[in-house]
Amino acid sequence: MDDRMDEPKSIQIDQFLSYPLRNLENAASFAIDIGGSLTKLAYYSTVKFRINKVKKDEKELYDVSETDKILPRLHFIVLENQYLMEALDFIRDRVKARTQDEGPVEFFATGGGSIKYAKLLKEKIGVDPVKLDEIGCVVRGCNFLIRVMNDQSRLSFNHSSGKNDEALFPYLLVNIGSGVSICCIRSADDWERVGGTSMGGGTFWGLGRLLTGKESFDDILELAEKGSRSGVDTLVRTPIGGGDYGNMGLSGDITASSFCKAATEKSSKIEDFSPEDRAKSLLHMISNDIGQLSYLYAKLNNCKRVIFGGFFIRGHMETMRTVSFGINYWSKGTIQPLFLRHEGFLGAIGAFMQSSRVDKTKLWGENFASSTGYRERSTSNSKDDDSISTLELDQMDIACETFPYLIDSYKPDQWDLTDDNASREYWISTLKSSTEKTASIAKQSQVSSVDVETRISEFKEKYLKRLDNLRRKPGSYGRLSVRKLLNMREDLLNELAFPDPYIHIKKRENEFFLHFLADRVKMIDSLSDHKKRWEECFCGILGGNMFDWGAKAVTDIFDGANDGLLQFSAALVKIQARPWLVDHFDAIYDKLNTYKSVCIFCDNSGADVILGVLPFVRQLLRENIQVVLVANSKPALNDVTYSELIALMPKVFQLCPEFEQFINNESLIITDIESSSPCLNLKTVPTRLVEIFAAKKCDLLILEGMGRAIHTNYKSQFKIGTDSLKLAVLKNDWIAKKLNGKLFDVICRLDEKAEP
């Protein structure tokens, strides 16, 4: 424990802790992991969200009302030990108002410090903590994160969430805290500590403080980012290092001896070696040794994967590269190093898993609105402002699992922005410039709310700040993609009580375009040539896909249209004529009569779903091809939601009576995916959808729109007899250029099932 813990602090504790330690009034279960330098807190609470409720209405298309929804949330916070006393006081003051009717407070403790300070914990919280084995907690925490969150790995890790645990084990867990513990995890209940070392994060912090004079762990890491090993280390290419041993796989820039120049360069004074170079050398020395040691233990225990945890990693790219080098070099690529995005929380999470209030069978999703990046700092302006990290997980409403038809190499995102500076800058700048428009639409959705201006200002401030942070530290939330940037925006809007900014826009467009549905299907039916009829159905989906409020090229057109409503015929004229940029229409047409059942993930409200998707679905059903139509369960931009689609159907029945028959005989099933994203990550889908997909024996998966078919899943293949079709209009110049096309070009891409 840091002896400075009892010193008076100049920071305003309430300001420092009030945001990370929030929702404590509802908290009933706590866990704490006190290490030699850092404290990790965990607690369970419930949070109230505002949601829009859509239901059928006899007088109008559907009725929209607001209501509150209560959801469980898991909170995890990491802070330096010097703030432990204040954090415990802060927790005590906010939970003491709990009544006996709300049940007792649970408190679990792990880590060496939690045993040492057991009396302090009881004195502060008023509960005798249940003490738990530290390594066991780390193992349980790692298994929990990998099983219930599909986006945990910093690198590629395709373990199936939820049901199938066999693919996960065995693996080596290397937990780098103050020291290093190495465990072999053979199953959820079978693990063994096989080794370790005293040289870990505490070593880096302690020696770093002595070598640089910096107090904070983060400050020492920042110095290391600016330094060069060659300033202090002897490299292989130098004369004393022996030269380049390429025949042995040792390139000249590998370290031959850490800090050797401080001893051998007699003409140099100690102050000639910069703090930045000292920090860099220290980081590499410790990381290299941990990497090589991990490889040896993995080889001894027949593990093909090594998962690194502990707060030493904290998303630092140089650390991960250095640790990975030893494993990749010595194993020649046969052992895979993996880094969890929330490695610093494992012990606290594992301790918290002992709580009776946590449903361990549920999946949880990260709340990007309030989870910080790896090393994001608190908002205090105090000179004592030290790093603080938070992770918040919201329980998913329904049972979910990984889509079982994914091939092992499945990655949802088409483009990785983490290391692509130009692409990252484009998307961050694009989203920053569109923030004012997003805020304006959100404000109009609640124009009569008394605090709307305050919440809008907070949204803009937080989102713009988050984008600026990602510009500087793109790895803060794992591999950066457009999907994550968009999801972050949706989470922030939802957290600030803007559950569906486009709700009124969607309703207006749905009402408007329903007037044209009967004429649209009549026109399609009038085409006697079967192939021409299908081509018109495809063009209808593509024309409808133009109605995308998330694309600036389209909103500029909307702004110039009469009453902001673009005519469907005008959209059809805008899209590329055949041959399309990617034109597999002939191939899919030739195979259509071989499909038994089609699953379609639809995109936008209004013209897209009403004049594009529904006529397309009708044509499939008329040819005895069953259809599963999937919409988001929660709002995202102007995407149609499941509840809106269900509310639309009675009116659709009146205009096209066939649809009611299709619904009644279950040749058409409408369902939802647990998502509030304009993109699609098939690593988490509702179990109900998987069961429907299997029961219907779907052999064609259709993904519509840029988010689901281009930003994500563009080159994805599936297995077990499932082809995939991606349909989208390119409504962004950057994407069009990436695909060697131009604005409003068309993608109609068929990927046949992957071979076993």
Automatic annotation (TrEMBL):
Q: What is this protein called?
A: 4'-phosphopantetheine phosphatase
EC no. given is 2.7.1.33
Q: Name one GO biological process term.
A: coenzyme A biosynthetic process
Say which enzyme class the record assigns.
Answer: transferase
Q: Which GO terms describe its molecular function?
A: ATP binding; hydrolase activity; metal ion binding; pantothenate kinase activity
The reaction(s) catalysed by this protein are: (R)-4'-phospho-S-sulfopantetheine + H2O = (R)-S-sulfopantetheine + phosphate; (R)-pantothenate + ATP = (R)-4'-phosphopantothenate + ADP + H(+)
Mind telling me which Pfam families this protein's record contains? ARMT1-like_dom, Fumble
Q: Give the organism's phylogenetic lineage.
A: Eukaryota, Metazoa, Chordata, Tunicata, Appendicularia
Instruction: Specify the pathway.
Output: Cofactor biosynthesis; coenzyme A biosynthesis; CoA from (R)-pantothenate: step 1/5
Q: Which family does it belong to?
A: Belongs to the type II pantothenate kinase family.
Please state every residue range assigned to the domain named Damage-control phosphatase ARMT1-like metal-binding.
Answer: 447-742
Job description of the protein:
Phosphatase which shows a preference for 4'-phosphopantetheine and its oxidatively damaged forms (sulfonate or S-sulfonate), providing strong indirect evidence that the phosphatase activity pre-empts damage in the coenzyme A (CoA) pathway. Hydrolyzing excess 4'-phosphopantetheine could constitute a directed overflow mechanism to prevent its oxidation to the S-sulfonate, sulfonate, or other forms. Hydrolyzing 4'-phosphopantetheine sulfonate or S-sulfonate would forestall their conversion to inactive forms of CoA and acyl carrier protein.
